[in-house]
Amino acid sequence: MPKFLALIVLSFLLILTIKYTPTVEASNVKVPILMYHYIGNNPNPKDTMRDSLSVTPAKFEQQLTYLSQNGYTPISLDTLYGIFNNQTAAPPKPIVLTFDDGYIDFYTTAYPILKKYNMKAVSFIPTSLMNQGYYMSWAQVKEIASSGLVTFESIALTHTNLASLSGARLLSELKDSKNILQSQTGYPVNFIAYPYGISTVNIQNLTRQVGYVGGLGTWYGKASGPGINLPRIRITGQMDLKDFASRL
């Protein structure tokens, strides 16, 4: 190849390299994804399971104070994936606050405290259970979503063990919950938390097929890259602040 042609080719390749190289350096961060359920006092002391899943408002506010004073930056899952995919610069000490199951105390208790500290969060809701019982109403979901602090993602239609389902029922739990939530919030729903943290390879593959970008389980660990079964850190009512801080 003539020398001048070689120089032209090298120059062209250099331009392509500059054009398609991410402007953000590859992420090496490990991000804690915290998992909450109830934010409130347990009304039934005999319900030991709920006692484990209930964090008192005082403890929750103490935890947010700790995060604020120690430089943590709560982010959405979309931002987390932007970091993992080298599209977004990681803020100082990124962390994701997730709340499972769409209980009414997220609206009455957790959200006002999040708003007080201006902290972002993710709420996973079982779409067919909204507007009834102990769950938030769609009006409350829309009110919270309009703040820009909270994004709502799926935890399937009915919070059923997905591994016990197959065929059209399994597809409906994944796909219909996504579509309903998108129609209510007006933005793409990219993530699902598997009910009870249970998933299989088939469920994970179907999750991708219906359009979810990522999935979250309940196994312990910090997230270090995109995935369809990310770990989370369960926050229980028995934790004191020292125990909470040690998990981050």
Give the key terms:
single chain, 10 strands, six-stranded parallel β-sheet, 248 residues, alpha/beta
Question: Can you walk through the features of this model?
Answer:
- The protein is α/β, with parallel strands linked by helices.
- The protein has a single domain (30-246), classed as Glycoside hydrolase/deacetylase (TIM Barrel).
- Helices cover 40% and strands 14% of the residues.
- It has 9 helices and 10 strands.
- Strands 1, 4, 5, 6, 7 and 10 form a 6-stranded parallel sheet that branches. A two-stranded parallel sheet has the order 2-3. The protein has a two-stranded parallel sheet with strand order 8-9.
- Helix 3 (57-69) runs parallel beside helix 5 (104-116).
- The longest helix is centred in the last third of the chain and has 19 residues, at 167-185.
Q: CATH homologous superfamily name?
A: Glycoside hydrolase/deacetylase
What is the strand tally?
Answer: 10
Strand content: 5-15%
Please report the first level of CATH classification, the CATH class: Alpha Beta
Q: DSSP helix count?
A: 9
Give average pLDDT, whole number: 88
Helical residues, percent: 40-55%
Q: Describe the largest sheet.
A: 6 strands, parallel
- CATH topology type: TIM Barrel
What is the ordering of alpha helices and beta strands?
A: HEEHEHEHEHEHEHEHEEH
Structural class designation: alpha/beta
The CATH architecture classification is Alpha-Beta Barrel
Taking pLDDT < 50 over at least 5 consecutive residues as the criterion, the unreliable ranges are: 1-26
Q: What is the first-to-last residue Cα distance?
A: 57 Å
Global Rg: 21 Å
Morphology: globular
* Domain unit count: 1
